[in-house]
Specification:
This protein starts with a strand and ends in a 63-residue tail after the last helix. The longest helix is centred in the N-terminal third of the chain and has 16 residues. Strands 1, 2, 3, 4, 5 and 6 form a 6-stranded parallel β-sheet that branches. The chain is globular, with a radius of gyration of 19 Å. The relative contact order is 0.19. 32% of the residues lie in helices and 11% in strands. With 256 residues, the chain is α/β, with parallel strands linked by helices.
Amino acid sequence: MRIAITFDACATNGQPNGFDRPVLRVLQREQVPATIFTSGRWVEFHPDAMALLTAEPLIEFANHSYDHPHMTRQSVGEIGAEIDRTEAALGRYGRRSVAFRPPFGDFDDRVLRVARDKQIPAVLWDVVSGDPSASATAEGMIRTVVRNTRAGSIVIFHINGRETQTASALPNIFRQLRARGFEFVHISTLLSSGVAAVNPELPVANLRGNAPNSPHESDVDGIMPPEQIDPVDLDARLDPPPPPPPESTPALPAKP
């Protein structure tokens, strides 16, 4: 049963945030591959962290926009620029994104089409650790992640220095999930193997603004609760499967 452990490394033009090096040490000690969704500004603000991360084979990189805006409030050109500027920042380290995660889980069909045109699959998450919250505890994260993870899950944490309990929670999370038979893989492996759960019918309206269970802190809406939502390969929404054929009505028995 394969699952992907992912981390967001968010920054904006005016808020560089930090780097949680103890999280990287746990990944190395436990030998857990992880995908880090970086904003371009975070990459630019943290060259020392990028040097460490790019030297670690356990780490692959993905795109989390350039300066963490609500993507549905951007024009098509701005959406493309958000993705391109982050690709350019990663490219300076010889890396390319394996996926795109819209900030706040905020997307519409324009966002999906721009990402697909750039041949970057768009993905969200289905298990929210809740680690950016100041009230998050290691015990609470362990309980939430272990309880909600299933085959094909995409688990979201953060590694940008605002979480305080993530490194403490991760060893127990990894050991309990391994004991349940889960295998940790990069998100690129999860998507290419076809085992990531897909819900192509997820309504776009449900993820506008701050997505349900958004793992990010918003100046207006705060932290969404860490509850389970359906895992999504957003790119699948552009090519939904054909509807099932209508059920036939059984013939009524002939009258005697």
